[in-house]
Amino acid sequence: MTLIKSISGIRGTIGGAVGENLTPIDAVKFAAAYGTFLKKHTPKTALKVVIGRDARISGPMIHQLVVNTLVGLGIDVIDLGLSTTPTVEIAVPLEQADGGIILTASHNPKQWNALKLLNAKGEFLSGADGAAILEIAEAAAFDFADVDALGTVTENDAYMDIHIDEVLQLPLVDAEKVAQRKFKVVVDGVNSSGGIIIPKLLEQMGVEVVRLYCTPNGHFPHNPEPLKEHLGDICQKVIEEQADFGIVVDPDVDRLAFITNEGEMFGEEYTLVAVADYVLSKTPGNTVSNMSSSRALRDVTEFHNGSYQASAVGEVNVVELMKATQAIIGGEGNGGIIYPELHYGRDALVGVALFLTHLAGLEQTVAELRAGLPAYFMSKNKIELTPQIDVDGVMAEIAKRYANEPLSTIDGVKIDFPTEWVHLRKSNTEPIIRIYTEAPSQAAADALASRFVNELKSIAGV
Question: Whole-model pTM above 0.90?
Fold first, then answer.
């Protein structure tokens, strides 16, 4: 069982001992720390926070604890109930709130939950703010409101519809053009809130929807991370239904993966690449992704005469670099699309709408569209961390060994070989070291990954 405290929030498994898992005590402590931080740093007496959750089983319990902790601090709550991460991000500025909390462990299995913390812009907190909240939590320096100053709770279940409306109003989204194509799409909502909001969006764009695992009961029918090894059911369903393609989202709907009309993975790395290709063709500009993401985005950006840059892993880092470079689209290779025209956050809805509009303007199948993009192949591996592994020491030794290669230590160690690359880093959300590689063929990517897995294990002595 695990509790991970990071600058982006608190994440852990349900049950077990306090301080070692995400127990009710821990949920209250970190909600109180966040509320206390807002009270200290917001020059207002009446504060307001937006809260939403995904459909995981522990959601209602954690939700009640967090809401009432904020109420106890004298903070008003706008309660969206069952929602998505990007929906909450959009709601915060629209409600003129002082922050937001999304209760979701994103792609983690059902035993996990988390508090993901937002600022008044509806964006993830900076590293400095996140660190300050962890300090407040450690000190347990909370000052709760007296009975006449308790916060209030206002329920608002309209925001999923508002989110859809905001997406459909984007200039590069053309629902009428999409409707004319009469697309048929299979949706795997992994029995969370994506099973509600994605079909709604599609139907408003005139798409016929085949629902697969779209009952928001939190019983994930497969590992919720949208990777090839977890998605056999939808691949088969696309073939059976003779659908144009399939859509897969994670439980909080900030990651997006496609299945081609041939029942094959489009590749989560290529979600952003395909959508960026469309956006750049209409509005040329710069792009950003993190350094664990495919070189294909760089290639597509340069084809459209834009500039590409890579950030450290983490949405807040991508957003910071996007703002600095005035990027018009960016995101992460895990299927996370950030389109500032709507908001600075990963958003599967905007990805779906832009992809559909792109496809509607082509005389191609999804498989043909994928074949026309730059060809790279990735291998994603991980090593479970144990107490005896000195991660910093291991990374330093790798950097020393490859000092003569183009190398970055901004976030772990990334080595750029002439035709391939490897990125080694400690995960922010799981007790693992991630090993990502990319090469011109799958065999080469797998071989490079195997080589570095063995080298890491050898250095670590495991």
Answer: yes
